[in-house]
Write a structure and sequence with these properties.
Layout (H helix, E strand, L loop, with lengths): L1 E6 L11 H8 L4 E6 L12 E2 L9 E2 L1 H12 L15 E5 L8 H7 L4 E5 L9 H8 L4 E4 L9 H13 L34 E2 L2 E2 L9 H19 L1 H5 L8 H9 L2 E2 L6 E2 L2
Parallel strand pairs: 1-2, 1-6, 5-6, 5-7
Antiparallel strand pairs: 3-4, 8-9, 10-11
């Protein structure tokens, strides 16, 4: 997968050379390039921002600089060339006022050949930038990584990139480790809690069933714990389950937790 990132702080992305992301680059699975938006400016101050039209505090990122940069990285220097867009990267802008980035988005984007991220700063980027590239046929996405405001898009891009790339075939040493995770798959739940050795630590034992060697019982215990934790922390994920996909034991656990499971999706009883 080829990844281009545009930022006014491209050095931020040196961390991408560490850990699994670094190994994936060394293996040739990933090619990450961070570009400095200021390289596309023409004034002595290399300015990328201007005051907001309509007034208000702060500065907004200018469309002209972004368009020179994006035209080049998208591979079309004149708008008329944009009709033949095969092989154009998915263009992604982090934005706190956009829909939430989820595991489902990460899974979809892990199949892309090329991603191009644009990091916002200040009060954000001129709203016409994503609109324009959408109108030119580019697959443009805007995502928030959570209900809070960061100083810039760099952290958000790192978060999205880590979630996306670890789902690429060949990225993880053990591919099984991404199969049964929180938020993953059709009947997505929060994962059960994890333990390692020793069996007793500072007087606290791991749940006995995990030491039993009975795989059926271990699986059931973990599934019940996943259902129970999801019920407590993210009941919206229980509401999204397909009742037809629940087995008898799941139904029993959910009913004990106060859910009605006879309709299409579980419903919390008052
Ligand atoms: N004025 C904007 C607002 O209130 O929605 C906040 C702009 S923020 C200070 C500057 C940049 O940081 C944004 O353009 C975006 O790229 C990034 N950013 C901040 N919070 C984010 C979040 N929760 N998710 C994704 N990107 C975020």
């Amino acid at each position: 997968m080829k990844i281009d990132i545009v930022s006014v702080f491209p050095e931020y992305f040196e961390v991408m050379n560490l850990s699994l992301m670094g190994k994936a680059q060394a293996k040739g699975l990933l090619e990450i390039k961070a570009h400095n938006l200021r390289d596309w400016t023409h004034d002595v101050h290399h300015s990328v921002d201007d005051t907001p039209v309509g007034g208000g505090a702060g500065m907004v990122m200018k469309p002209e600089v972004w368009s020179e940069c994006l035209d080049e990285l998208l591979g079309f220097s004149r708008p008329s060339e944009s009709s033949a867009l095969s092989g154009t990267p998915v263009l992604i802008f982090p934005n706190p006022s956009a829909p939430l980035f989820t595991q489902r988005d990460a899974t979809e984007l892990s199949h892309a050949d090329h991603l191009l991220f644009g990091c916002g700063r200040y009060e954000g980027y001129d709203a016409r930038i994503p609109d324009y590239y959408r109108s030119q046929g580019v697959d443009v996405r805007e995502y928030s990584i959570g209900d809070y405001v960061l100083n810039g898009g760099e952290v958000a891009v790192s978060v999205m990139l880590e979630a996306i790339t670890r789902l690429m075939p060949g990225f993880m040493g053990n591919p099984d480790s991404i199969v049964e995770e929180s938020y993953t798959g059709e009947g997505a739940l929060l994962e059960h809690r994890q333990y390692t050795k020793p069996a007793v630590w500072r007087g606290i034992s791991v749940p006995e069933v995990l030491l039993s060697g009975n795989h059926g019982k271990v699986d059931r215990f973990r599934r019940d714990e996943a259902l129970t934790r999801t019920n407590e922390i993210r009941p919206d994920l229980i509401e999204a389950l397909d009742c037809k996909a629940l087995d008898k034991a799941d139904r029993k656990t959910l009913m004990a937790l106060g859910w009605e499971v006879s309709a299409t999706h579980p419903r919390k009883l008052d």
